[in-house]
Amino acid sequence: MTDHVYGFDTLCLHSGQIPDSDTGSRAVPIYQTTSYVFDTPEEAASLFNLQTFGNVYTRLSNPTVAVLEERVAALENGRAAVAVGSGMAAQMIALLNICEAGDEIVAAKTLYGGTHTQLNVNFRKLGINTIFVDSDDPENFARAITSKTKVLYAETLGNPSLNILDIEAVSKIANQAGLPLFIDNTFASPYLCRPFEWGAAISIHSATKFLGGHGTTMGGVVVESGKFPWDNGNFSTMTQPSPGYHGVRFYETFGDFGFTMKCRMEGLRTFGPTLSPFNAFLLLQGVETLPLRMDRHCSNALAVAKHLEAHDKVAWVNYPRLKSSQSYELGQKYLPKGAGAVLTFGIKGGAAAGKKFIESVQFLSHLANIGDAKSLVIHPASTTHRQLSEQEQIDCGVPPDLIRLSVGLETLEDILWDIDQALSQT
Amino acid sequence: MVWSIKNMSDIATLQRVLSSSKTIAVVGLSADWYRPSYFAAKYMQEHGYKVIPVNPKYQEILGEKCYPDLASIPCKVDIVDVFRKSEDALPIAKEAVAIGAKHLWLQIGVINEEASELAKKSGLTVVMNRCVKIEYARLFGGLHWFGVNTRIITARKQIPKP
Question: Is the pLDDT score of A366 beyond 80?
Fold first, then answer.
């Protein structure tokens, strides 16, 4: 007898929640509590020793947050997940789980500006060095690996250059070197791409974007595939007694969810970027409709991209579903259902025309986010990527005239109307 | 070491094994409180099972008399739970058959197809490369508090404990 395998849409609605035995509440209850009472001192000791499963303190675990964690783990077809307060916290917790002073990270140079800064500035202060490579050639990762390398890091879709990573090729390079590939899968969401199917070890999300989907809530999730052999000799921190948690050997004790348990009991416990239970509840409301929203995001974005490509005021358009995109072929492989909500373009007249466009839109919202149900627009060179030098901006795929659109779920004709009327003023 | 979903017993089988059992002989149980075998045995004891330690090194663990081997156990054993090297599993499987145990459970990392086949041929249910504690918590509550993908989908209230 084999277990029934549920479809993605069912998992979006049901994974992680068993209706609670006392009330039968159908919606996920919000456990807005910091702490949990113990029955006896012995039970408390067992909980602290991790000898029994249970909740102690919401910085470590919370029943509402746990539903979100399990649901995202199920959507990624992974083994386990841990949720945190933001996407930036998610990648920090994931990377610091296995990296320490003296270690190296090899990362795509087209990462989101905030991620680039976290690695290039903040991690360097901790003694963790990142080598940034042109990820369009997977062999560049292999060339940058040294004996100090602990992890390869990249995004499914670069932000905002929208270059698609050849995940399978980079996974192969990572695994041959005994290293895990971490993928920031925020732009695709597990509905469009599941990095574990291509050999990645860890998937990271800013749940703030498509998982939440309504622009209300910050959150991040780290998911582990459960398939990476952490006992291959390169990760003593996973196999040796933890000095931060009374000598527990996380891989031996928790096996294929040892990585996330370590994130929880070391990273969350001591750095503390906890997700609030209420925010987990809001993110869960978003996840319920993820497939429906992603389909509409993709179809609207493709229509907008084609419209812009044909517009005589537009100098260039970048969307992986356009045949003109350098990522078109990889998009067919890794994003068969659609290339997501985000596209970029430049207007004839450069940065000044772009500024005029953003000043002229009627209901496209000028703000620094993506993945909202509403359409969003921004000029990254002056906002999200402002902290980088002009050369770093160009290296990240942010030319001065680039405008980024996160196409929402409004009536398509209205989105095109707003774009046209704003373009007519440039 | 690599875990595979392919090795995973189905939910109905695991429920049957855990619900129909009362006594678990834990082969290779350590008396060190921080060892995984101790974690698992203590947990199962706290959840109502009689744990019988099997380890020639000790007299008593977790308040229970410790036996040097399965054959020395004077009472009926439902589950033989193995915390030993994979290559040691075959003689233990033979002993489990000999004492009339109902189920052979090989813990995480204990993978031995020969032992599994031998036990199955004698009518034992075999669970391999899984932790008895983790699977109990997966089916009857606990594991879902730690973000693990339990693959349990239900609109029924919490599954009653065995």
Answer: yes
Answer whether A385's CB lies under 8 Å from A404's CB. Answer: no
Residue A233 contacts B, CB cutoff 8 Å: no
Cis peptide, bond prior to residue A160, ω within 30 of zero: yes
Helix (H, G, I), strand (E, B) or coil at B21: coil
Domains of chain A: 8-98+180-286 (3.40.640.10), 290-423 (3.90.1150.10)
pLDDT in tens, A7-59: 999 999 999 999 988 899 999 999 999 999 999 998 898 888 888 889 999 99
Confidence of residue B5 (pLDDT cuts 50, 70, 90): very low
Phi, psi of A96 (to 5 degrees): -70, -15
> Residue A402 corresponds to which tokens in the numbers above?
């680039």
Count Cβ atoms below 10 Å from residue B50 Cβ, excluding itself.
15
Of residues A3, A20, A69, nearest to B147 (C-beta): A69
Length of chain A: 426
Token digits for A225?
């595939």
Given a cut of 60, is residue A349 above it in pLDDT? yes
Q: Of A67, A144, A157, which Cα lies nearest the Cα of A112?
A: A157
Q: Would you say A342 and A178 are in contact if contact means Cβ atoms under 8 Å apart? A: no
CA A196 to CA A284: how far, in whole Å? 22
CB contact under 8 A, B42 and A257: no
Instruction: List the single residue in A20, A247, A255 with the smallest CB-CB distance to B131.
Output: A255
CATH of domain B7-146: 3.40.50.720
CB contacts, 8 Å: B12 with chain A: 1, 3
* Torsional class of A127: left (φ above 0), alpha (ψ -120 to 50), beta (otherwise): left
Indicate yes or no: pTM above 0.90: yes
Contacts of A252 in chain B (CB under 8 A): 36
Residue A209: CA atoms inside 13 Å, Cβ hemisphere, count? 27
CB A212, CB A286: distance < 8 Å: yes
Residue of A nearest to B37 (CA): A253
Domain boundaries along the sequence of chain B: 7-146
Contacts of A235 in chain B (CB under 8 A): none
DSSP one-letter string for A328-360: HHHHHHH-TT---SEEEEEETTHHHHHHHHHHH
